[in-house]
Amino acid sequence: MRIKNIAILTSGGDAPGMNASIRAVVRTSMAKDITVIGFMRGYNGLIHDTHIALQRFSVSNIIQRGGTILGTARSAEFETEKGMAQAFKTMKKNKIDALIVIGGEGTMTGADRFSKKYRIKVIGLPGTIDNDLFGTDFTIGFDTAVNNAVHAVDQIRDTASSLERLFFIEVMGRYSGHIGLAVGLSGGAEDVLIPETPTDIKALAASLNNNIKKGKKSNIIIVSEGDEAGNALEIANKIKKILKEEYRVAVLGYIQRGGSPTANDRILASKLGYHAVMGLLKGKSRYMVGEINKKIVFTPLKETYTKKKKIDISDYNLIHTLAQ
Ligand code: F6P
Questions:
Q1: What phi and psi values does residue 238 have, to the nearest 5 degrees?
Q2: Which stretch of DSSP H or E encloses residue 313?
Q3: What residues are labeled active site?
Q4: Which of 96, 153, 273, 287 lies at a 20 to 30 A Cα distance from 117?
Q5: Which residues make up the CATH 3.40.50.450 domain(s) of the chain?
């Protein structure tokens, strides 16, 4: 059956570059005589049939904008049988031949279940700042989030070295340390605490003590929000009990997720948006399209959320070597 109508939605936490992928999907579809509609607020829009037509000019002037013009949500309703059945009705009512979803792990899980149950053609695009999806080297939004965070770390380094202070900076990443690792390496951190590696508070205190004795003017510890030893404030308090050193804590929070996407994110989003449509036209379904070693790769949706993407342990070791 020829694909004539595609629907697209963004789901989960927004990520800079989502708009660039919506644009790429719409413009690629136009070139192939396919019409596109966009569901609003993630899977909730699919359940309640809240959509807009996406035409050529609907996606003008959005490649540089953060967030998502379609809105997004973490839909609990879509996890229910009733919600999914309602979503299927919307698909039929609007004569949609295929669905493209942009989001993270939860989004891929929902798309896989929906597609399996109702035999719907689906392609996923990796859109999350966390970079924790198996099947792609980078997710859309990760590069921007890292750049936002490292910019903040650089600014904090100015005050940290002027006052010779110890800083704990918390970055996002509930279950993964990809952001923490990239920010730690590019920000020249003294240490980085991430969920994938054990955190030894005593060893950290000893190494900070050593740094202070050596005459290091600033000490910056990057803490992933999902670290096993607690959040940045909790870890700082534990260190204080051993080291008796004055400290400051900065939680970067949502500034990481906002703002104009970097060129890298726009390029990735554009390529993946294009290949999502082309993949559907070639008969692919229930895959996520990603990029590995600069090559476009289609990974079964199920693998994207059941397999864990590993952190690069050599980056972790490098941070420690360079922080001496
Ligand atoms: O998944 C992206 C992310 O920004 C995580 O890094 C963070 O833990 C979470 O979303 C925050 O979720 P919410 O936007 O629901 O507060």
A1: -65, -40
A2: helix 313-322
A3: 130
A4: 273
A5: 5-141+261-306
Is the pLDDT at 1 greater than 80? The verdict is: no
Superfamily of domain 145-257: Phosphofructokinase domain (3.40.50.460)
* Cα(260) to centroid(ligand 1), Å: 18
Q: Which atom of ligand 1 is nearest to the CA of 174?
A: 8
Q: Taking the domain 5-141+261-306, which CATH number applies?
A: 3.40.50.450
Q: What's the whole-model pTM score?
A: 0.97
The confidence score (pLDDT) of residue 244 equals 86
Band of the pLDDT at 42, cuts 50, 70, 90? very high
Q: pLDDT digit string (tens) for 5-37? A: 999 999 999 999 999 999 999 999 999 999 999
- Does pLDDT of 179 surpass 90? yes
CA dist., res. 84 & res. 102, Å (int): 18
Ligand 1 environment, Cβ below 6 A: 13, 104, 128-130, 172-174, 225, 257
Which residue's C-alpha comes closest to atom 12 of ligand 1?
Answer: 13
Beta bridge partners of 169: 222, 250
Atom of ligand 1 nearest to the CA of 254: 4
Residues linked to residue 290 through DSSP beta bridges, in sequence order: 297
> From atom 8 of ligand 1, which residue's Cα is the shortest distance away?
174
Cα 6 to middle of ligand 1, angstroms: 28
Residue 293 backbone zone (phi > 0: left; psi -120 to 50: alpha; other: beta): left
